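An instance noted here:
***
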Amino acid sequence: MNMTSMALLTRPQKPNSCFSSSSTFLPHCNIQSLRFLPHRSLLRPNKNNCYKWKHSMFISTKPLLKNGTLTLNGHEAITGVPDNVFLTPLTDSSAFLGATSSQSSSRHVFKLGVIQDVRLLSLFRFKVWWMIPRVGNSGNGEFRGSLQGNSSNELELCLESGDPAVVTSEAIRAVFVNYGKHPFDLMKESMKILEEQTGTFSVRETKQMPGILDVFGWCTWDAFYHEVNPQGIKDGLRSLSEGGTPAKFLIIDDGWQDTTNEFQKEGEPFIDGSQFGGRLVSVEENNKFRRTSKESQDDAPNDLKHFVADIKRNFGLKYVYVWHALLGYWGGLVPNARDTKKYNPKLTYPQQSPGNLANMRDLAMDCMEKYGVGAIDPDRISQFYDDLHSYLVSQDVDGVKVDVQNILETIATDLGGRVSLTRHFQEALEKSIASNFQENSIICCMGLSTDSIYHSKRSAITRASDDYYPQNPATQTLHIAAVAFNSIYLGEVVVPDWDMFYSLHDAAEFHAIARAVGGCPVYVSDKPGHHDHKILKRLVLPDGSVLRAKYPGRPSRDCLFTDPVMDGKSLLKIWNLNKCTGVIVMVQRYLDRFLLLMLSILKRSLGNCGPEIVQSIPFNKGSLSRIPKGEQFGVGLKTLECDVFTVSPIKAYYQKIEFAPIGLMNMYNSGGAIESVQQSGDSTGYNRRILIKGRGAGSFGGYSSVKPKGCSINGKEEEEVKYREEDKLVTVTIDVSDNSGWDVDIWY
């Protein structure tokens, strides 16, 4: 594969262990991510036809580089390793690879050896801003490292500083390698090791989570694009609220700032891409969001603060975020404007890495290369962010979405190189967010490079894919697959953001279900009055909160080395967990298909349960099935169809009663409504109770092997408890008045 790789996994046909490797930032390099699993020829079947390792001549289980062969856990991983590549052991299962050269340079490409007879998954940057998954069969310092392949199936390490004045002749710890049996555990362990070794980033679970993650939102971008205006925002918030799905957070996207554009002349035809030549004039809002004089009779609010207070008061918004670029705007700052010259901006023309030039062209980058960028002086960047963010706080704005973050790697010449420049800007940005806003209120965007990812100390939410393109049918499945696969790696550092979507669209349910299982922010970009409230009500509770799953949604293990977007046959499965249940989403892009689904995906995570592990409810059918551990069940999906399955462990109560909570069956992530399940009575036979705590409104369902005698909700006895004998489904209705929280007490 001739591509620059962000993350790479390899495996044989029937793997027993996983190999992992990754690039990071250490004194002379920064590291990308690599994973690989050995070929089937290194495995042998036992009497149960399960595959075990064939032991090689190497006895040590630690990573070892000897005679041109890299071995992990005693097994060959890379052959033909050149003499200038060396290994530094780290733990029993992990190590760093490095390389040296006879000459110093600002860019090196080192051959690492040959990987062959394997199945590869890579996450690579197909644009300067974004990465997507690809599968195939071949293969902290001032330098950034990335992995790439060549036509000889050799793995290569590319080091580059982004500044001809910043040179080196070696990379001591450029590629991190690790191995283990379970790919998701392996990635978590690897990122924690790298966090400790580098000290440049923090893993997701250590970060403060912004409040927007647990409520429903609306973004103005696809509703208005640059024509966003106060009245349109009010119209959109009103139509969402009147439909029973009120937005609790708002992102005012591009179009609110005070900018100028010398490349867009009034009265002349619009030239696509010229908008990227716009530059910021001041940190304040433009005339759409403030009155220009006291005598003005237009509909503009007095100022941004007046508008924000108005919509919070009238529509019950908790959070209002606004958009800005890392350098203020797409084209940076106006160099000599009255309000921006104190930041000493300098007109700079971006230069991309040769690796980026080999991939897809991007209109925004092409235009910024043409028009230039008013780059802020690194010595003034802290002042700029503090001035901008403190002003926004004075206007009652709660947070920001910061876009165009990878621009730094293209303007690093004479500024110390891309790694040090990114580190400096990221530290200034995160310091300003912490000083000015509450709840770590930032969404990062257009920053899928290791320069940005490995400097994420505080930022907790990052966009995980290219934009949502509602007008392009071909990108809908790719969007979902890209986020799911990228989350394998990205989800260990941040909460991946799946982006906005239209609820009224041919692919709306695709996107809605994906976000229900994504563990991500949930927000739409509907035009005012253009909503599918049937879909939205399966995502959003009446109080505007959402049932967010616990972790980033990722592909199931059996999907890791398939290409559900391009191969014409594979089905994408995405899994996640709630407090008491699991959830699986399946998406079918191609021909109608019937398949068998095995629930081992969630078996290790759902805890101890009886010999029959789960109940499974396909959302679109509402049926309940009891599935023994390790068994399969059939699923039929038509072209461009998707479905979501709630998975819950059956547990025994009072010896004879088997019960499994399903949750709110009217919601896509039904089990997300369940907080806890416990016995609440005794075993005398007269007071046998199961208490379920949860939140939300609608139809609560669960599996019960015995028909209940009755039920109460928040202490009030229910007149009707429905029980379906054929599949043991028990249901009760929870009113909207109980939306904030409820206790369902079932007695037997």
